[in-house]
Design brief:
This protein is α+β, with helices and mostly antiparallel strands. The protein has 8 helices and 6 strands, in the order H-H-E-E-H-E-E-E-E-H-H-H-H-H. 36% of the residues are buried.
């Protein structure tokens, strides 16, 4: 699975080129979460955040950071179920590193059906450190939003309206709380707007579309068991 996070396989899976998803993903579906980025109850979102967050997608705007290599630090296996726990050290194209801790569940044919993961120190690694960098991130969101979110998907009346809202109405926040009602959350969803505007335009808009909204602590304890789909061997 680690090699599937690398280009070009990650984009091939995301776009399901030549039905490649059938080689990796269970036909019963996929759900999961990657904290602090978000919780994904459907296959589309679960695929995007596992394979698309740091993957360059052909014919789409360039990703600021992509995965260059993945080291498997350790892997453990459940004795009864097809579940693995892995620690991956991800080397990023901008000479940064991220540790990805993930539990992954597989069906009887060893196809991924669920995952529960965490990116360690995402904010410490990628939060902008200056006002100029934060403003630059806001401008990227507004450019993407005004380009791809039109008609019924329109979120802001103008670029300036977008900039004003993201600068004055909500906190910038941190990628360590990247699924909350802040700008940081919208920087992530802006990456996916060109891929699927109908889904992600509301996420970068004023309401947050249910994704970039403030969530209480109980939200994280009241989720379904993302590993419950694992095949029982014994």
């Amino acid at each position: 699975m680690a090699s599937s996070l690398l280009s070009p396989v990650c984009s091939q899976i995301l776009l399901n080129q030549n039905n490649i998803q059938s080689q990796y993903i269970s036909p019963q579906g996929l759900s999961g979460r990657v904290l602090p980025a978000g919780t994904f109850s459907n296959k589309v979102l679960a695929l995007e955040y596992l394979y698309g967050l740091l993957c360059q997608i052909p014919n789409f705007p360039p990703r600021p950071s992509t995965i260059r290599a993945v080291d498997i630090v350790r892997v453990t296996y459940d004795r009864k179920y097809l579940i693995t726990q892995a620690e991956l050290l991800i080397h990023i194209s901008d000479n940064k590193r991220l540790t990805f801790l993930a539990s992954m569940a597989f069906d009887k044919n060893y196809k991924l059906c669920g995952y529960d993961g965490q990116l360690r120190n995402l904010g410490l690694t990628y939060d902008p450190s200056t006002d100029a960098e934060r403003l630059g991130a806001i401008q990227i969101i507004c450019n993407v939003t005004q380009t791809f979110c039109n008609g019924a998907l329109k979120q802001y009346s103008s670029f300036d309206d977008c900039k004003q809202y993201l600068t004055k109405k909500i906190p910038f926040g941190s990628l360590d709380r990247a699924d909350q009602g802040n700008v940081a959350c919208r920087t992530i969803h802006a990456l996916f707007v060109p891929l699927l505007p109908s889904l992600h335009c509301p996420h970068v808009g004023p309401t947050g579309g249910g994704a970039c909204t403030n969530k209480p602590i109980d939200f994280y304890y009241n989720q379904s068991n993302f590993l419950g789909c694992a095949y029982k061997q014994y």
